[in-house]
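Record type: monomer structure entry
Structure origin: computed from sequence
Chain ID: A
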Amino acid sequence: MGDIEKQPQQHHIVLPIDHHNLPLTKTQSNFNSKINNQSSLSIILTKIHAGYFRISLSLSVQALLWKILIEPIKDAHILRHIFTMIPSTAFTLLWSLALFTLLTLSFLYLLKCLLHFDKVKEEFFNQIGVNYMFAPWISWLLLLQSSPIVPPAALHYKILWLLFVVPVVILDVKIYGQWFTKGKMFLSMVANPTSQMSVIGNLVAALAAAQMGWKESAICFFSLGIAHYLVLFVTLYQRLPGNNKIPAMLRPVFFLFFAAPSMASLAWQSVCGYFDTASKMLFFLSLFLFLSLVSRPLLFKKSMRKFSVAWWAYSFPLTALAIASAQYAHEVKGIMAHVIMLFLSLISVLVCIMLMIVTALNIRMPQM
């Protein structure tokens, strides 16, 4: 009998395919690039918040300080002449940088409102986040006042002022209304140093209105801001149990304590036309609060361990105080007043430059 020949069995080996190493077609490459770009943008939009407008706020008020300091003044003190050596080009570049920063942040936050409205809603109902809703509009008003191309007498100035003030009024009605109508949102329960942003918004609006000659509007916004500031200052000064909820990383916002009276002195000076007794009293109050805070560096020790956008909260109040000191020095024309002006102005500029450098060094692109 013939032997049956055994046929060798064939084994089919399937090799694993690494799709990541395969060459991509042009269509696949463009699709993946689009997905990555959308993911990166989504990460940026979810992380950005209204507190980032501290940057534009600081740059805008810094531009206003430079505009005031480089203006030629008849019979100016010799210390004031130091600032006249600053070229106008430097001021223009600073103002352009502030405008670019504000436009970028406004565009990103607008996209967040459209694509991640739930995150914006959470921020609006946060007792700290809601106060920084005023920051973009304050930045626009400060940028308008320091503008080298739009004079206060121009029609465009008035139209832009109205455009920027309407959101401030809407936020006023919302926040001030809930302070005395809602049980869980009483001022004694939600008050914190960032609550002074609402006051600053009204005072900056008053300052801009007075510069274009709308005295009645200026008095209206000043009275609204100063009335709520008096109540808020007393509430914060008492340190009630409900309003002592500022995290250690956000302690730089304590500098807002002297930002509000500084802006109030400037606003009242614009309404009256000169730096009168009331403006001087508000300036001295802000100077005292500034000295009280800088004499306690341990208060800010924890917040300085790691960089945060909250560091920009140092710059705006310092610059507002420097502007008030410049107006005070111009009124009294004394050597000591000009020394204070020179010291505060240099500190303000140095802090702003250092924050720009540190921020640039700490920018991190989102990881995919």
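Annotation 1: The chain has a mean pLDDT of 84.
Annotation 2: The radius of gyration is 27 Å.
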